[in-house]
User: Fold this.
Amino acid sequence: MNLNKVKKLLIVRLSSLGDILLTTPLIRTIKKKYPDIETDFVLRKEYYDLLKLNPYINKIHLFDHEESETDKFESAIQRNKYDLVIDLQNNIRSKNLLKNCSAEIVSLKKNNIKKFLLIHFKINKLKNAPPIPEKYARTIKDFELDNEGLDLFTDKNSFYFDADTTKLIGLCPGAKHFTKMWSKDYFIELGNLLEQNGYQVVLFGGKNDKQLCTEIKSELSNTIDLSNNDDILQTAADMKMCKTIFCNDSGLMHTAIAVKVPVIAFFGSTVREFGFTPYKSKSVVLENDKLSCRPCSHIGRSKCPKKHFKCMLDISPQLAYNKLKSFIIT
Assistant:
């Protein structure tokens, strides 16, 4: 459908943190090019804060897994009489939610077969695959994104820092899966290198990262631990104070990028071809690209299938610190 004919548009992306942030270039560009379109969004209720202050969205529908809530959601979709639905989730759940929707539906084209070939047979058909935001944009014919990157709007302020912000370096040690996490001991060693060279270390994470952040802080001399109970808007405000942030291939990597903070990202079991590298930002990806076993997964694993974990362990803290020095200068 030509967007010139669309009055009401619904975008569906139920989860997760990074995937939803990666939709924001599409949301913004649609509103800029077609300001009269009413653009609504549906996501899981735990991710509401990611978009609740986004000025390019008219209405947000919150999805709940309970059957009664699903019925309410389907009724709400029918009442709104959308002209077009962009399904960026494109799975059984999103299809089920939209099964009675009378609007035209366009869906994200997934590269599941190509991912399978790359992971299991190392046949790389994804060399020319676009970044995920551009892949989202391809659901609309002949549609091009602007050049402004990701968005995350926060109404919170950081009250923690009275230090020179040019010396604040963030560390995000967590990730959902083990094989996407740089070693805790390496984060400690990097933290010590930073402190020895006059930097103030700041730790970031959600509720699942709090124990890890506590353990890292206990091994450093002057570190601020700002991990919290998944208050993403406070995390975003605090991240803005940092000169650079070290992170894994995780939702917090995309969070830092969305608030325009440079990142140095560690990629282990995942690779650039999957499209989740830092988008339109000042960034560096550190990875061991000499391993024949990478990638072993497109989402991460609970342990290294080869038992050596060289994809992460071969990225030394000294290498990461050296990269920071050249990164800040440039």
